[in-house]
Amino acid sequence: MAYLAWHEARIKAYDDLLTDEQRAEFQAWATANVDGHSVGTSDWPGWVPLIGAPPWLAPEGN
């Protein structure tokens, strides 16, 4: 999946797929981990089961 398509899928997943519990987990993870430099919300491990690994981590063709 291309870079921009993955980010679009991430936004759609947040809006349409995440439960309230998953959103709370995401927010807690982001508060504890996002540093404005090397870790961003796209690094949340919860994205992988929903939309797959980001293209910069996924093998070619995923």
Folded structure, characterized:
The chain is built from three helices and no strands. The protein is an all-alpha fold and 62 residues long. It has one domain (3-51). It starts with a helix and ends in an 11-residue tail after the last helix. The model has no long low-confidence stretch (mean pLDDT 92).
Key phrases:
globular, mainly alpha, single chain, 62 residues, 53% helix, 3 helices
Topology of helices and strands:
Layout: H1 3-16, H2 20-33, H3 47-51
Compact summary:
With 62 residues, the chain is mostly helical. The chain has helices at residues 3-16, 20-33, 47-51.
Domains (count)? 1
- What is the overall silhouette? globular
Low-confidence segments, given as residue ranges, are none
Question: Which series of helices and strands comes N to C?
Answer: HHH
Decide which structural class fits the backbone: mainly alpha
Query: Which value, in Å, is the CA radius of gyration?
Result: 12 Å
